[in-house]
Amino acid sequence: MLINQTEVLGLIDSGASKSLIAEEMVYELGLETKPLMHGDLTVMFSADGNPLPIMGKTRITFDIVGLKIACDVNVVKQI
């Protein structure tokens, strides 16, 4: 898929309740991280139970063979 004209590998899980992106990828793609607001989740848990602190939020637009999909995602330290 393309994000900001950069080809990246990613996993699209249409059944997921939240979307995540690694903080490093946010910087590599030049995306803006917005701070969490009161009431936003501050931590999620991976499938193996490890905590995933949420650093902020960003909005990305996926381009998959010309199909563009905008998505709000939570920024985590690493995935």
Give an overview of the whole structure.
The strands form two sheets. The protein has a four-stranded mixed beta sheet with strand order 3-6-5-4. Strands 1-2 form a two-stranded antiparallel ribbon. By secondary structure, the chain is mainly beta. The protein has one helix at residues 23-29; strands at 2-3, 6-7, 20-22, 43-45, 51-64, 67-76. The longest helix has 7 residues, at 23-29. The protein has one domain (2-76): Acid Proteases (Cathepsin D, subunit A, domain 1, Beta Barrel), CATH 2.40.70. Helix content is 9%, strand content 43%. The radius of gyration is 13 Å and the shape is globular. It has one helix and six strands, in the order βββαβββ. It starts with a strand and ends with a strand.
Oligomer: single chain
> DSSP strand (E) fraction?
35-45%
CATH topology: Cathepsin D, subunit A, domain 1
Largest sheet: 4 strands, mixed
Number of individual domains = 1
Q: What is the rounded Rg?
A: 13 Å
Name the helix and strand elements from N-terminus to C-terminus, one letter apiece: EEEHEEE
Strand adjacency order, main sheet? 3-6-5-4
Principal-axes shape call = globular
Question: Roughly how many Å apart are the termini?
Answer: 18 Å
What is the mean predicted local confidence, pLDDT? 91
Topology record:
Blueprint: E1 2-3, E2 6-7, E3 20-22, H1 23-29, E4 43-45, E5 51-64, E6 67-76
Parallel strand pairs: 3-6
Antiparallel strand pairs: 1-2, 4-5, 5-6
